[in-house]
Request: fold
Amino acid sequence: MQGYLFGEEGEKPSVATEAVSAAEGLAALSATSRECRKCRLAASRRNFVFGEGNPSADLFVIGEAPGAEEDATGRPFVGRSGQLLDKILLAVNFERKDVFIGNIIKCRPPENRNPLNDEIDCCMPWLLEQLSIIRPKIILLLGKVAANTILDNRLSMGAMRGKLIRWKEFDCFVTYHPAALLRNPGWKRGCWQDVQLMRTHYDKLLSAGTPHDRNT
Ligand code: SF4
Reply:
């Protein structure tokens, strides 16, 4: 999968060249993928939600699927959940523009039901393409559906939170989905601990020169 995701080892591009090529690559992928009609969700969507943020982000935040406000606007994590996600990220010194934010599923499931397995199978290649272009070092998985899907397990949140989990080339952390935090404010403390752990790991990679070493 390394080859599929990142290509062969070779001469590394300059920072500017890589940033431009990542932006161009994402723009091209967005243009192609928004025409997608590979699953039944294409019929009911108002807007395709590609995701947004820094094309060269070292942190990729992944949720489950667009909700009503995301479907209405075509943007990920807007509305109350999005505002809370912004606060969560800011609490550990990330602004939205620093990271890339997206979902496993790009079109809204009706009534916000969980995505079905065949919908996930259809949509995952778009996310894998995004990862191959952005090449983050760290992935923050929001909620059980996103975490179980990416990590290919059926574990509980309790079994996945509070630790670094390696998936492919990425260091992953799991925390609660902001919508779940709005319903269960008592979980916010646990979320804070999760993102602090993630930030500490990010800083450790940064101090070792790892997060941006692909750009040097
Ligand atoms: S959910 Fe994904 S696979 Fe289904 S139509 Fe939308 S973009 Fe295509």
Q: What stands out?
A: Residues 36-39, 41-42, 105-107, 119, 122-123, 126 surround iron/sulfur cluster (CB under 6 Å). The two ends are 24 Å apart (CA to CA). The chain has one domain: 13-208.
